[in-house]
Specification:
7-stranded antiparallel β-sheet; 3-stranded mixed β-sheet; alpha+beta
């Protein structure tokens, strides 16, 4: 998937990005939040913090989209707003990434795209340098192998990004200046900051899901929705001399995740990475 495209940077609410591939013209001040300086094409270094230790994406290894499950009220607001946003942008396929994990998606995205296509789209969006907005062509192996869709992405908050698939219209400026503030502006004071503040790798709502304190990390494999959820709470605990500041004596590490992933492969075998035809696309 992928190819050249427009990238809009944002510097203190103004159009950014210098070099080739940048979206021309200044961008209006963001109606959503006061974003830190973000590098567009040809821009400077991003101000977004990168953790000292980032574990491998378990979902990629399993061939499944890696997802997170916010609290119920956040899920509801996110799903409803994504639906109206996609309708206003004339798109059927959309998803929201929170810390690189899919937190919400449209019914058409979930039902009509293949497992591989969903994994490719989330992996591509997550792997790109931070930018306020992007517009790039993508070929989908099964759904559209010959005619490209346009992948439009918008940074709503640091670590919260929405992506949609469009045809030739609307343009990136139209969506950025009209659809984004109209649909996401109402979530800018509470929902979006709450999503951005979620701890990376704590992908289950602790208010409704209770796990034994002795469990270091958990991988949920959901074949029905073709996704997995990685819950690794010790990755965010400070103190001691463990990996990335994790407390010693109870903290987990990348090695522990390797053991857990190996166990998942042993239990599920090839089915963890390749669903049979009877289990979906």
């Amino acid at each position: 998937v992928g190819g050249g495209g427009d990238v809009a940077g944002l510097e203190n609410g103004q159009g950014g990005g210098g070099g080739g591939g940048s979206h021309g013209g200044g961008l209006p001040p963001s109606p959503l939040s006061s974003l830190p300086p973000i590098a567009g094409a040809g821009g400077g270094a991003s101000s977004l913090a990168v953790p000292a230790f980032v574990p491998p994406r378990i979902g990629t290894s399993l061939g499944l989209v890696e997802a997170c499950v916010p609290a119920h009220d956040l899920q509801t607001a996110l799903a409803d707003t994504l639906s109206t946003f996609c309708f206003s942008a004339r798109s059927s396929y959309g998803f929201v990434l929170v810390h690189g994990c899919v937190a919400a998606s449209t019914a058409e995205y979930q039902r009509e795209l293949t497992r591989t296509e969903k994994l490719l789209l989330s992996s591509l969006t997550r792997s790109l340098p931070p930018a306020a907005a992007r517009d790039m062509p993508v070929y989908l192996p099964v759904t559209s192998p010959d005619v490209p869709y346009r992948l439009l992405t918008f940074l709503l908050q640091p670590e919260v990004e929405v992506a949609i698939l469009c045809s030739g219209t609307p343009t990136l400026p139209q969506v950025l200046e009209q659809c984004v503030p109209q649909n996401w502006g109402g979530l800018s004071r509470s929902v979006l900051p709450a999503l951005a503040d979620l701890h990376p790798y704590e992908n289950l709502p602790t208010s409704t899901v209770s796990l034994d304190a002795g469990i270091k990390a958990t991988i949920f494999v959901d074949h029905a929705l073709q996704r997995c959820i990685v819950h690794w709470p010790f990755a965010n605990r400070s103190g001691g001399s463990g990996v990335d500041g994790c407390a010693t004596g109870g903290a987990t590490s990348g090695g522990d995740l390797d053991v857990l992933l190996s166990w998942v492969h042993t239990v599920h075998g090839a089915g963890a990475a390749a669903l049979t035809p009877g289990q979906g696309k």
